[in-house]
Batch of 2 targets.
Target 1
Amino acid sequence: MAAYSGPRLNGNMLASKFAVGTRKKIENIFAIAFRHKHDSLVLSALGCGAFKNPPGHVAELFRSVIEQYAGFFRRITFAILDDHNSGRFFNPEGNFQPFVALLDGVVITPLSPMSTPLTIFGPYRLLSDGVTTSDVCICNKLLCKFGATCFELSDRTHAKEYFHPPRCPYVATKGKCPLTDNVVHMHSFVHRAHCRYGGECREIDDEKHAREFEHPSSCPDGGKCGSTSDEHLKQYRHLPLCEDGLQCLKFKRHDQAHCDTCRHCVLNCPFGSHCTYIHSKQHRDKYAHPVPPPCQFTPFSCKLYTKYLHCGDRKNLDEYIQNHCLDSAHICPLGRNCQDKDELHLEKTIHIPRYMCPDDDKCTKLTNEDHLNTYTHSKVPDIRELCKYADGCFDRRKAEHVTEYRHAARFEHSGILSYFNMNNGINFVENQKNMIERIIQYVKDQKWIPLPSWTVPDDILNWIRTVQPVHRCNQVIFESILLHGHVMSREYMLNLKKANFVANSVLQHSRMRCVRELQEKVVAEHAKMYVTALVQRYFASKGFIGGKIPDATAGPPVPSADIQDELTSLERDIAKQETFLSNALSRKDLEAIRIKSDEIAEASINLHTNRAGIGYSSDKHLGTDKTVFSILGPHLGHYYGDIFIVFKRDILHHPDANFTIQAATSIASGSAFQLRPWLGTHPATIQEQIEFFNKCKLNCSIPGYEYAAALELIAFTSQHFALNSMNTTLDKILERWFNVDSHLTIEGHLPQLIPLSYIEHIYIPQNLYDSLSVTSQKTMHATFKNSFTLVPHDGIPVQPQNPHGPKPPTQSREDLQNFVVEELRKKFIERVRNPSWTSVQGAAITMPFTDFADTYVLPLTISQAYQQYCYANHHRPKGKAYYIYWQVVGGDMILTLSNKSVLSKETKSNLRCLSCYIAGKGPSSDTTYHEYFSYINGSSPFQHPVLREHGKFAAKSNQFFVGCNTDYLMTFCLEVQFADGTVTLSHAGPNSIYNHEKISFQSDKTQLDLEDLEYIHISCGSRIVPVRNLMVCFEKQPDLHPTFDKDFSSIPSASSKEPTHFNIVPQKRNKTTELIPCHDNVNCLLQHSRRRGPAHNAVYSHPCSFSELCAAKEAHLTHEPHNSPMCKHDKKCKQINDPFHRAECRHANLPDFLIPCRHQNTCYDDSFEHRTEFSHGEQVYKKSSSSSASKERRGHDDALIPCRYGSKCKGINSSKHCREYSHLKSDE
């Protein structure tokens, strides 16, 4: 049988096609000899002479076939002669020496009998049943040139057409191949990898998967097997588990036919005592856990366990506390950091391994409750103790205090910002779009230099995202604010002559909000009637009737007979309400209501006696007199007063808030159209001016507002300095800002009645503070304490209203303004450079209790949100779904989606609603948990009382808050899927780690078409409900769905006999096979090759691109920790397509290393998406902690075939050549 003549070589090896063919020729020689009953063979160095076959490789192929035929022949002799064909490039050492070195005197022992399908011994090939053998056949198909490395081995069509090598006989007989480092052997026999999941493989019955991977045999106990140990489940394949488990009626009846097809047992939970699904009843029914059933209050609300933890001698505790803590499992407050080795502790507690904060001790978010409740920090407990002062604690901004205590949201978000639907009819998404397009068109028309790709610099966007509204006022108004407990619009001040308005101020005062009983509807209604009567009595006693101010020169007012009768009636009403309230409130709280009612009534009279503030007729036309005026950023409006009030950022996200570039009055006067010519022409009529003003408004709860505002500021700055370019900087914007009147910056229009809890800081001149009344000073200290600054420059009590401009008329006031403005500038710039992790997004509102009689519509519809997403991202969402996220304190609220506004006066016959009710926690004792039903239903919010009475909902749950931190803002997600009509309510944020309850139902399109739902409403029941960060998304937000570390295993169970190791970082897993690190590291192309990848990956290991965060670990990949910081820009990073940057900084949900593109530096695809996924020849290396790079490379080189040309090889710079051949230097 002739060899190949002049076959193609790869170095000193036959190319794949010729290696496969040569081995088959040798195999045919042996088969023919056996067929003719010869017991000995005399062979030659097949083709190693004139035909130029490499003798080393041919000798290896001979040995491979000899091992296959071991036991079939008594002796094999090679007759080899080095003749004139020796010493050439393919056989520099001749032919004799390679054969002697490999085969001389070798005795091959026959393999043990085998029954593995598709294996071969001698000439016999076992068929797929593992019993029948095929006839001896020289060749009945074309040879696949890729041999055992063929990627299409499992392709039936390909397999029918081409002949492939058999499976490895060593694996068939010994279970493991000893020749995995032998290239010829690996190319000559198919090596199926053992499935790493063993009997637990979910694809064990998949034919294609079964052809590629080895799986264990069936358990001999069949359906009777009750073993749930991990080792047993992996060792054998098992029958499927019955869905009903041990509760199955057929199992209880011993139905043999059913029991032969299913197993009935409870499996061990794969997470053991680290299970975060421990509160799920469905999960507990399916899996057994090594701890008792959990306390439903753990981890945040179990008072008994808190006492248990803090008791020095627990044996002296009350028995009911001990029984509770020993009968129920609790979540350990230290989580993965726990170092308590006590057996009882390990037996009774669950250790939830939350992910470590990537910044850990360098974390800058330690004052953020959500961050601390989501990530583990090495020096901070996962579950911190509850601070008794809640969010009224003055130390809650200090990291050292917050890392020890968590703070309930009781006061900070409880201030009610009344809702008047002031932005009704305004399409903020359309406003944004029109602003952007106007400026882009103007830049084109004027031939300005545009922004590169119209991308706004991040620092300008962050400035707009972080600046806060600043309000200025004089001393008279400031004292009124302190006494009323609110910052008020001009219109609201004028309404304080009405008793019901004053009563609202009294009940919304910070002192009253501390009275918990006043948050209950019935008590609050009686309190409202009581305070109204008190105010009316005070007004009447002072002669302040109908808003008319009594003549101070006429002496004390003498009440008329009618007034006297009214006073008598009021006294009866007051006495009646006092009788009720004295049983509901403490004497101290009732006295506070009386005192505060008189104080605020007196302040209201004084406010009308000494009117102050600025008012313009155009403000009344445009409606801005109904809002609180502010500047978004440093406020240079000295003509408003010398006291600066800085509001919290949240207030800009209220549905009634908005802001404009320039003051509203500039629209009426026409100056806006002169200074910003892209706006067009000045509207002539008042109605047209109002309409245009509404089209200039932006709202911070609408995505994309910052981009539109940024373009306006950039264009305004360029126009001011005549730059004729949009390429400006934040410094240039601020240069203009500090040199123009504040009416020419950003004007904020805030809700008309703002509680003091929305004030973040106050700057007041020392001389004005000294002139405040004692009551006002006490109020400042009690309410703000560390949140006000006494400025060492003099101000004036009542400011002159002229002249306008950025500079005050006197030096002392200019020094005062410069001091405050510089403080604000530094504060805002710092936030620009280090954006807050808790920056507010979406809508924010605190709703008063209305028992669902009132509802609030958001200024953004579903279709508007969709349009904004498409416009901002230049593409449609990938899926047909949207997600609504929001945060709530306490619950008892409804989020409603409807096809029409429920506030509309139109007929409601065609109104379709989807209501999502978040229940409040019900009354619970220390050990008995109770919760009202939360639900989803196709009904309006007004139907809630009836639905609650009958308890019939489309989907419901009364386990929705089990395990949750209900003391702080709870985050929820409503997922609406158009494809199948599924609506799902679930937890997001930190609570989603501990509670996995989902309320879900499938909508009937004939009854409720989800695609018709357009408007978003919120309403609440019998308590005040703060709602924050309500936003509509068209992609699931990964940051809002934290999970736990499923690979964590460093805390042992109580029954573990192994030494205990307590590491903050999870221990590294041992590799299942000893693979050689590939010297190309993450840049290896072969590992991704369809044809050559499987054989290469069976020998060499590569770093996983996701490092230790990988969710599906593969055998040939290593998963060592990648100790790199998170990129501060994360997914907005402009270097996200740079392989070196990706290796140096992490980005959420993205791999640490790019996949090497097969085209490398010749790739023609320059798209950002492609370059974000693939690298192109950049030599990025993953550092190994187990060995040095040089050792890895040397170990890899030792496994390669030595190139006969050594360091003089011409192909030494070829990466493809070097993957197969090593090149020793001369000194080696």
Target 2
Amino acid sequence: MCRVPAERSVLSVSSRREVRNTTQSRFPFSFVTIADCVKMARFSILLLSLAYSALTHANNAFISPPDYGNGGQSASKNTVYNVGDLINIAWNTTSSPVTLVINQLNSPATEIDYLPNSQSLTRGTFTWEVTIDGSDGGAKFDLLFDNQFNLMLFPSGQTSFVAQSVYFNITNSTVNQYGQRITSSSSSSTYSSTLSTSTTSSSSTTPTAAAATTATSPAQTSQAAQSGLSSSAQVGLGVGLGIGGVAVIAGILGYLFFRRRMAKVKAGGSKDEISPSPGYAVVPQQGVAEEKVNVSRMHYWRIPVPELWRDILQKVKAAGSKDGSLDFESGSRNFTGLFDIAKEVGLYILFRPGPYVNAEANAGGFPGWLTTGAYGTLRNNDTRYTNAWSPFFSEISQIVSKHQVTNGGNVFIYQIENEYGDQWTNVAARTPDYPAISYMELLEASARSNGINIPLIHNNPNMNTKSWSKDFSNQGGNVDVYAVDHYPSCWSCDLSECTGTNGDVPEFTTYDIYYTNFQEVSPTQPSFLAEFQGGSYNPWGGPAGGWNNVAQKVSGMNIYMSFGGTNWGSLPMPMIGTSYDYSAPISESRIISDKYHETKLFGQFLRIARDLTKVDRINNNTGYASTPEIYTTELRNPDTNGAFYVTVHTSSPSTDLTSFKLNISTSEGVFIIPQYANDIVLNGRESKIIVTDFSIGTQKIVYSTAEVLTVSVQGNLPIVVLWLPAGESGEFFLAGSSQGSVLKSDGCTGIAFKQVNGGVVVSYTQLNGSAVIEFDNHYRFVLVDRSTAYYTWMPSFSADPYTPENSTVIVQGPYLVRSAVNSENALQLTGDWSSSIEIEIFAPSSVQHVTFNGVDLSVRKTDYGSLIGQLGALSHSIDSIQSQLPSLNNWKINDGLPERDASYDDSKWTIANLNTTTNPTPPAIYPVLYGDEYGYHTGNILFRGRFEGSATGVHLAVIGGVNSGWSAYLNGILIGSWLGSSSITNAALDLSFSNTTLNSNSTNVLFIIQDNMGHDETSGATNPRGIYNATLLGGIGKFTSWKIAGNAGGEANIDPIRGTYNEGGLHAERLGWHLPGFDDSRWEESTPQEGLSTDGARFYRTVVPLDLPTSMDVSLGFVLSSPAGSTLRALFYVNGYQFGKYIPRIGNQVVFPVFPGILNYHGDNTIALSVWAQESSGASVSVSWTVLGAVESSFDLAFDSSYLRPGWKDRSQYY
């Protein structure tokens, strides 16, 4: 996520009343051929500073002399070929592909799969005949076009390939830029050809089409051909819409991508174009079959317990996602374990390595050492910056390359940079920004040369920048998929931050501009909202505590966030505090909320709405509904006629309850619906999708005014779950049936059947609970209210993210269902429950025995085919667990700020003696007193300056970021403090020495402690942290020396498990007082609630045991409180991790969740607290436990997490 500067982010909001009547707008996706993998999850690298072991990467393909076999011409550079020409090439290769490029300008993309021996394949309006001969008896080759019409080929699955001949018979017709067929002729169908290997990279920013293919071989070859045409060769990338999944506000989530199924040609010589999966169509040239991909995002580094990643990803999967979305940061841990977890759960990965990732992280994810100015202004082609990111980016690309779908892994998309919309200095004039273009080209070339052979994407910060789309320009730096970010209700709980981007509009205003933007900038690509709002971050001073883009054919949405996590240590940028809950569907404490359930409703619908994978936007206006208060968009699949009528209030901020009828067109005719039931109802800011001609099994739902939750096929017969809010009426028309019967009526009233031409219409009113209907074709419908739908789960037996309908069962009742295994007549379920509750299971009829979390579940079979059992009462309640937690009354105390005393021994501190700086903000005085210049980048930074002679005061200006604070002492006496401001980053005060005594005959010591709030993002990453000005006033005194201290070891990373971002320069941190095992036996006893009665700092420690129930997933936190008006800054530590920053004067966070694994649930825990009183009135802080959640669970929290909590070692050298 990015706070976009106002001067670059003005959006024009178009009227949603405007009719947008469009036709065929599906997206040919030329560069991708990934084997059945367009389901995403998103991983990003957070920090650059961490090293990776080097991986070998061979790239030694070379061209051998031509083979002139079979009468074809020798393929050579700069040779013109005509339709009907035969082209021969031959080569030796040990690993990398050799590329034959046949370039035709002004042509759209197309794709071709491999052809064994002499076979021909017609794809759209092209016929390509490929002949392969050689000693291997007929090798398989992959062929593919990118969207500059570059034909690429390479051996499929070969490790070596020597002296083979390949020649092409180019026949039939060409295609113009609109995908229309034109007659071929020798004059209109010439091709210029170049021959290259994958060892060359591009340096040109404005190449010609032909030159580009030669110069950018690594990037272009890999961007397309290396994307992995396998022998099962399916796919492409595409989109469907984006509202479902798990990270969404008001029920919107996911990133939806359409999947394109490429031609599958059998080795036996079949000329079949395709072998599609159910629900997918194949179209030539102007259209593609697309698959929605439902993605959820988390920052794994904000939950630094690897064993808990599985918990989050299982919840993501249960909400209907095909993909998990995570930002990566290596740290000292083996992050590649996440690939295995995601694959096991059934998720694919979109990997985002940066090198800049933003994410409200310190310096946007840049390491501290990069922020000094020594590497330039960053994010451009400055050689110094290039040399800084290249080792990281090369090695991480090599690591990830092993986990690509092309290598049997699950990473299928690779993002270059983040929110870097800098391709133009003037967008309207399309004036290129050449340093930015060069930077993107360098990153892309690095990725390709280090083994990344999957598609590259980039996300623009907003819709104004229009950067990096091949459809928009032929400038350099373009990626394979253009994308944008948007936060329609503000990325922050402080709405004023977003006025410059969103305009001064009412809350909950939605924007009907995505479709227009994508049609302008990237009409041949998926419409991808790479970040779409799923919540907001809570800034310092923020509160304590739906948009339906289907209508706009938004192809993909990464909802930010699904799980936010915690800004532990110094992870955050200055504007936000410890919590990164983000109002996400999965809370910071890992509890699932109503937002999660709303997200699940939509995510599960998108999973089975197969016709959404290829739709046209037919029309959108207020004329469909019986009232102009309702605005409708019609989407229709041109192959199946399946349609989706997306209804919202015309005024999106409306909270009205509006009833209406809807005009629809179906295969059975035109209807005004409902025909027999009460009207459709929209309640305020919700949206409903009315489906028509919705395929289920061999029949269709002609229409339904109730929303579809899921379809599960059992015994070759579908079970359909429809849902409505209790009290609303529903109506659906099932084709292919003549009558139905009510098997269970508890959850509905007024169920009526009306036989009509073509089927049966069912009308009813939904009550709390569920009803079951069976038709004469044995199709079953389960009708549920919203609250029942919330706790209806569809676990799959398969790890395939596609989640076939015949791989699922339906489970109603529990808090969460994590997995299902079906073996013969037994069903094994795992999950969580929060109270004694009935569980109902719709499973194959063969199932006779059920276990839940490994325990036999006694079940009975109902008349309508389900199994019903009972989950028992919880072994412990939240209250009982709370009562068993140990008291937090026995604390030890020590002075937390001895450095303020003039006699303090700072002989081990760093001498500050730099008299030059490369920082773009040079200080007002020298020596340089910026922490980053001396290797101190995080947390508190301490300074001691010595002077002799007279002075009456000092002018201090300290840069620490917004919300930062500092205190100054002269010879041990407080002379003043900056308490913090949400708008001032360089805090200046003139402080008097009147309350202290100068040493007229000896040295005076000025001590400053700064609370460094982290580095700014984007262009502000190089803003310094430290003293900008320290000038004595009213005398002749001059500073004679300065010393500086920060985190122990500086950049040395002496605690590789917790990492350098965990600690700052407090005395207690430098000596390791916050770590388990430190001996505090000689300390005095006191409590933070008693606090200190004057200025200064105190450090408190206590050790408490825990022994929580092993069968339960318990979420714990701590509550910090202090008297009103307190001017303090406190840091809270749990087993050595800084897990809370408490500044009550400027922030409202009082509850601080702490993850199991950081807390030892079955052993001793070291709890510590630093309390810094900035004024002479002193400070105190009360600390108490809180139990945030407790459920019986299959998720085992008894894992060995001791490795995460290394103990104290002697740190006296950092005194």
